[in-house]
């Protein structure tokens, strides 16, 4: 039996970079397995001109003046620029880990018995849980995401 | 004191690495390391099998986590539990550092000058540091063959600048090891000098980093011992002006016997220097066969000094090894 806890879609844009979106939801029946499906896209910025502009901005910001030309010459080695959104989980009492990786689609779970790499196994308590999306970088004009959270028998 | 070979920056598949803790530890063992710090991005679940892997491989595993934030990557080691990075904004790193320290850990800037967002998100250090005393170390060498990389040269210079300003801050290397793949580039080692006593090896290693009892190298282990009026001072020590008045003898040694067969340097005459904020304090030439250097130091203007070993690696004149600083107070 699958108990749906949260189903949502959203869209973020480059100004959302370096922000978090936290969803708080209620688990009324403790136990079982908590499942999280998260997907976002596009992953890569395909626009070459925009990519070049962004790489040049980074060079300006992060590279010493004396080396800038050298690095500009190999600007394409930094392509493709990518969106990166990661997921972390908190139960009513404590932190339950994070999946800091680059896959644009992830099916994560946690239960008493085990958990996906990065997440912490343990009791699925009743109460208010949180799933946080950390938007490390959004480089495409828009980036759509979907987040589905449910509970099922272990 | 005993020196142990450490790799202080590594990842597993619990974040974006492509290796298990066992594969990582076995790989470290094969490269002659005694100790690793697991510093996965924003999670500590990779440490679940820590005890078993330690027993199976004989590698000491330090608990850590790389704060993979929007404004910088901060390596934290020795932490007992997860310390939340998410509430921290670009002006709040001291609040974060306080929580890391409260959890028994220490913190260092990881690859502070690597290209930042969006190319490598948060990789360039942008946190505002109000008080450098709060930061325990700087990872001045990142990746393999670190001494030729310009990002590392900037990090090394940052460390030197802070020493010149009077801060006592440690310097380390870290491969930022994500996968078991062979490299023909020189691998860097952070040697830590552990104190005697009953504390756990991991705890001793963390305390060694915090105290700057560290020597970094892509080849021989470089040590510097200073004897003033009968008292001996190692790397990381503070030597008082009174002690200096006795006159001191400085003993430098490059131990070419470490990690036998696991690194290679062409035979040559190396330049071994002691440098401080006042410039080069002493310089001598050494070879593999004759790798000691000793000199008397009477009256010193400098506020810190470190040893550096320079030579030719792959046709390039580079820094091969450096010690952390000793301080004169
Ligand atoms: Zn990093
Ligand atoms: Zn890393």
Automatic annotation (TrEMBL), chain B:
InterPro entries: PHP_dom (IPR004013), PHP_domain (IPR052018), Pol/His_phosphatase_N (IPR003141), Pol/histidinol_Pase-like (IPR016195)
Pfam families: PHP
Domain Polymerase/histidinol phosphatase N-terminal: 6-71
SMART domains: POLIIIAc
GO molecular function, one term: 5'-3' DNA exonuclease activity
Domain of life of the source: Bacteria
Full protein name: CehA/McbA family metallohydrolase
Organism from which the protein derives: Paenibacillus mangrovi
């Amino acid at each position: 039996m699958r108990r749906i806890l949260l189903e949502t879609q959203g869209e973020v844009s480059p100004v959302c970079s370096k922000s978090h979106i936290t969803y708080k939801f209620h688990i009324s029946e403790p136990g079982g397995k908590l499942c999280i499906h998260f997907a976002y896209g596009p992953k890569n910025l395909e626009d070459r001109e925009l990519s070049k502009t962004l790489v040049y901005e980074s060079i300006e910001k992060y590279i010493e003046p004396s080396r800038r030309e050298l690095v500009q010459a190999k600007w394409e080695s930094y392509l493709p620029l990518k969106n990166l959104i990661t997921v972390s989980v908190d139960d009513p009492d404590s932190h339950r880990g994070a999946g800091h990786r680059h896959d644009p689609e992830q099916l994560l779970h946690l239960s008493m018995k085990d958990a996906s790499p990065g997440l912490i196994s343990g009791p699925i308590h009743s109460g208010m849980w949180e799933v946080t999306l950390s938007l490390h970088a959004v480089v495409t004009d828009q980036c759509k995401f979907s987040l589905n959270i449910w509970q099922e028998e272990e | 004191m005993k020196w142990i070979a450490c790799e202080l920056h590594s990842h597993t598949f619990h974040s974006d690495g492509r290796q298990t803790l066992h594969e990582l530890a076995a790989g470290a063992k094969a490269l002659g390391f005694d100790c690793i710090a697991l510093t996965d991005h924003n999670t500590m679940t990779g440490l679940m099998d820590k005890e078993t892997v330690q027993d199976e491989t004989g590698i000491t595993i330090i608990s850590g986590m790389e704060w993979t934030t929007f404004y910088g990557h901060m390596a934290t080691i020795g932490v007992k539990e997860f310390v939340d990075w998410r509430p921290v904004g670009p002006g709040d790193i001291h609040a974060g550092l306080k929580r890391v320290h409260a959890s028994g850990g220490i913190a260092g800037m990881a690859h502070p000058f690597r290209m930042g967002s969006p190319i490598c998100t948060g990789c360039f250090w942008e946190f505002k540091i109000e008080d450098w005393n709060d930061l325990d170390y700087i990872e001045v060498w990142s990746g393999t063959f670190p001494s030729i990389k310009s990002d590392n040269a900037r990090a090394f210079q940052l460390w030197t600048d802070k020493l010149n300003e009077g801060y006592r801050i440690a310097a380390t290397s870290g491969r930022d090891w994500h996968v078991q793949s062979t490299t023909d580039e020189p691998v860097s080692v952070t040697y830590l000098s552990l104190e005697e006593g009953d504390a756990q090896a991991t705890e001793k290693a963390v305390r060694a980093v915090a105290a700057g009892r560290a020597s970094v190298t892509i080849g021989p282990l470089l040590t510097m011992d200073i004897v003033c009026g009968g008292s001996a001072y190692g790397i990381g020590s503070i030597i008082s002006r009174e002690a200096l008045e006795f006159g001191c003898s400085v003993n430098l040694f490059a131990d070419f016997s470490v990690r036998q067969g696991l690194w290679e340097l062409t035979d040559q005459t190396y330049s071994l220097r002691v440098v401080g904020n006042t410039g080069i304090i002493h310089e001598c030439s050494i070879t593999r066969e004759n790798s000691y250097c000793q000199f008397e130091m009477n009256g010193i203007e400098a506020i810190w000094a470190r040893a550096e070993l320079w030579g030719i690696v792959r046709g390039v004149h580079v820094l091969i090894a450096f010690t952390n600083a000793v301080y004169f107070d």
